[in-house]
Fold this protein.
Amino acid sequence: MGIRTAFNPMGGSVKAQFDEDFVLLNTQTPGDYPFSLNVGGVFDFVLVGAGGGGYGDYFSAPAGSSGAAFEGEVFLAKGDYVARVGQASHGNGTATVLLKDGVQLITAGGGASRSGAPGTLTISPDCQVIEIRVASNGRQGGHWSTGASVSTTGWGRGGPAVSSYGGGTSSGESGGAIIKYKRKK
């Protein structure tokens, strides 16, 4: 029997919203994925920014840079969230972001095209990180050298250089997000 409180007037324990290891999201499809939590808890995250595109140039052949990655456990309080999965293109890749009420908690930046800057990882001080397995900026693409993924999933690679005199392009790889419920605290 629990103790009655203003938060739990009938006593008893507050039940978790999900079963342990319940997967809320596992996708590389770009877009916004909103979810609401009635009770806070610890979630396991994989967030990977999309890679930038490569370019065809006979002399320099610049490949795309990869997106940043975060993998680890985060405590999320009760509230409304959005997981925004980054999109790859022949240009710059876009970020994969965890937002709460419009505020960015974790941003795994996308990689730039044509050997541009790799994706940058940003974690807000408002984010309650419990454990980090991977926290890395992306890798820069170079002359014929694609920016490799920094995630254990292999997502977010930069696009390869194109063997072309005329300057063709290639797309980077999409970012992705995996969100799994672990426990209440």
Q: What stands out?
A: The first strand starts at residue 23 and ends at 27. The two ends are 20 Å apart (CA to CA). DSSP finds no helices and twelve strands in the chain.
